[in-house]
Recover the amino acids of this structure.
């Protein structure tokens, strides 16, 4: 009864041929399309590189002022601004200013891409149960498949560099903003939607005057999650050649430098906290209208 | 004045994926229960025929589940009918294209909702001008019009509040102002005052009646409250299980209830406020000096007679000529609920 003890697996040669077949056909695809795909992403590369240079080249006092102003614009909290500036000063003092700028540039561009692609995708998803049924498993895969697995085809196509790193970050970080845009729109009160219908709102008018504004707090929670997940991918992105704090962490792992690892790791945490607190306070302000409930 | 009456003709609504297959069976007498248990379809409306008069208040009354909210949603086609017609100004709403329907909703109708359905992220003024914003009215003009109606419903100074900061009664005033700002011929009111406290409800009813005196819109008012129906309705239709079981003026319904179900309803009604003196007057017999205008309610008449200590009164028409006479006894008789009910 060997059938019970030995799993009836594919014959070794078949399996090898199968894997080889997949690899070969993807390599063929790469040879055929690699260049055009690379040129497709070229503008993205230029944009990211330009933004990185801009962040690094800007004198640090000006950068501090800009950061402080952005945090204030989002949170309206002086305490958070002071905290941000002190943290950034400490990061700079410990010699991580430039790497931090690289990481900030990557996160900003990645978040922007996720928003630009993710919100329309979320809107599309909210329109029908069928699109939701198609997109949901894709999002599940994007969030759970080990990052290294999708690094393989990206590397085969685009090699090592900033763009593959950026794509890897976006794949992992985009699902929350898509999911929460979809959820936010679906949670909009049906009575209010009916009122919009009764007054003759078109589909587009309904989206912009009712659904998006009322979904905004949820969408914003999605953006917040997206930023956090993008930060979580910094080390993986470093693996395929993206500059920044992640690369220092990698160096620390390879050489068992405890202090270097801790410093850069904590710098990532600090950025995450600044982003998170600022965006959460901003999200709360979006809901100002629902604060005072009539007793 | 233009004819803004609404004619609902042979309207059926059967909820479910194949409602149209069951219209004939329902017509042949299949009950709501049978349709539900055997065929998994829900009977919403059955053969509704109502002529809603132009520039008057048509009340649709019924308990929950009677189909009244379903009916009002057919007038602006928020619900698609299974079969039937809703005719307004020579057009069948049920046959309109999507674009025509949108224009119809924007320009001809305005709706007030039981749960207010205000946009929580917009201020009171931005809520009020929402309807005309959809029409494409420019911001300056729309704000002016919205301010005017907000002030008419007594919300001066609340323009920049958010709906959540207002009480229920005030929120519904915003809902009413939003509908009036649309300046549509038809005003649809779906249990508009049902969620309000009794005193505030009376208040809102008065506002509505006052406004209607000058606006003369065709108002369709849904309610489950007979007192409200009698106070507001120029005509009343009573719905049960998706069917109209009686329609007419309030007085007709109180005096001649069509069946036991309705007489059950009307027995608690204050008849003195519904029945008009014209209904009970007899030929002028005595030479009483007290004059009461035709169309007054019994309650008004009784008050006048007791105030002036008279046992009878003349009923006079608009010109002041005597057209009949009532006596205190006939008034009291008519105000007391008959024992048979």
């Amino acid at each position: 009864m060997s059938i019970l003890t030995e799993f009836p697996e594919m014959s070794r040669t078949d399996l090898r041929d199968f894997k080889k077949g997949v690899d070969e056909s993807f390599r063929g695809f790469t040879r055929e399309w690699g260049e055009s795909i690379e040129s497709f992403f070229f503008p993205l590369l230029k944009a990211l590189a330009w933004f990185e240079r801009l962040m690094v080249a800007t004198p640090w006092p000006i950068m501090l002022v800009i950061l402080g102003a952005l945090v204030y614009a989002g949170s309206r909290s002086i305490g958070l601004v002071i905290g941000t500036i002190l943290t950034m000063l400490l990061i700079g003092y410990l010699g991580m200013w430039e790497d931090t700028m690289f990481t900030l540039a990557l996160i900003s561009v990645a978040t922007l891409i996720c928003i630009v692609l993710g919100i329309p995708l979320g809107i599309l998803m909210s329109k029908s149960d069928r699109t939701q049924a198609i997109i949901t498993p894709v999002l599940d895969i994007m969030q759970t498949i080990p990052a290294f697995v999708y690094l393989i085809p990206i590397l085969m196509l685009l090699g090592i560099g900033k763009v593959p790193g950026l794509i890897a970050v976006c794949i992992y970080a985009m699902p929350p903003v898509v999911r929460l845009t979809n959820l936010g729109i679906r949670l909009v009160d049906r009575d209010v939607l009916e009122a919009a219908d009764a007054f003759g709102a078109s589909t587009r008018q309904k989206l912009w005057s009712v659904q998006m504004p009322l979904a905004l707090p949820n969408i914003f929670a999605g953006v917040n999650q997206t930023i956090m997940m993008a930060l979580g991918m910094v080390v993986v992105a470093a693996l395929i050649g993206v500059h920044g704090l992640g690369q220092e962490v990698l160096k620390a792992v390879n050489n068992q430098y405890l202090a270097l690892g801790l410093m850069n790791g904590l710098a990532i945490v600090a950025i995450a906290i600044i982003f998170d607190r600022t965006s959460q306070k901003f999200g709360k302000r979006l809901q100002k209208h629902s604060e005072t409930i009539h007793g | 004045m233009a004819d803004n009456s609404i004619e609902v003709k042979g309207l059926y609504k059967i909820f479910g994926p194949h409602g149209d297959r069951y219209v004939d069976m329902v017509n042949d007498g299949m009950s709501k229960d049978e349709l539900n248990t055997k065929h998994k379809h829900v009977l919403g409306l059955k053969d509704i025929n109502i002529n809603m008069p132009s520039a008057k208040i048509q009340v649709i009354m019924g308990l929950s589940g009677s189909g009244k909210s379903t009916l009002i949603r057919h007038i602006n086609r928020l619900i698609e009918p299974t079969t039937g017609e809703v005719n307004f100004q020579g057009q069948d709403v049920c046959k309109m294209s999507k674009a025509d329907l949108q224009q119809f909703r924007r320009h001809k109708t305005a709706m007030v909702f039981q749960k207010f359905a205000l946009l929580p992220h917009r201020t009171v003024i931005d809520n009020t001008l929402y309807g005309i914003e959809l029409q494409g009215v420019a911001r300056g003009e729309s704000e002016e019009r919205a301010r005017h109606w907000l002030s008419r419903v007594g919300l001066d100074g609340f323009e920049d509040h958010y709906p959540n900061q207002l009480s229920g009664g005030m929120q519904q005033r915003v809902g009413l102002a939003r509908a009036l700002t649309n300046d549509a011929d038809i005003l649809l009111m779906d249990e508009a005052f049902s969620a309000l406290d009794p005193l505030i409800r009376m208040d809102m009813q008065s506002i509505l009646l006052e406004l209607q005196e000058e606006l003369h819109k065709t108002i369709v008012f849904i309610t489950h409250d007979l007192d409200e129906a009698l106070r507001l309705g120029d005509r009343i239709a009573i719905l049960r299980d998706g069917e109209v079981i009686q329609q007419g003026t309030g007085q007709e319904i109180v005096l001649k209830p069509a069946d036991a179900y309705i007489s059950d309803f009307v027995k608690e009604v204050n008849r003195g406020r519904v029945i008009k003196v014209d209904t009970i007057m007899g030929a002028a017999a005595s030479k009483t000096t007290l004059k009461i205008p035709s169309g007054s309610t019994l309650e008004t008449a009784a008050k006048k007679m007791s105030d002036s200590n008279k046992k009878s009164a003349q009923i006079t028409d608009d010109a002041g000529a005597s057209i009949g006479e009532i006596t205190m006894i006939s008034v009291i008789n008519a105000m007391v609920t008959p024992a048979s009910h």
Observations:
- The first strand of chain B starts at residue 6 and ends at 15.
- The longest helix of chain B spans residues 198-215.
- The two ends of chain B are 41 Å apart (CA to CA).
- Residues 71 and 307 of chain B are 45 Å apart (CA to CA).
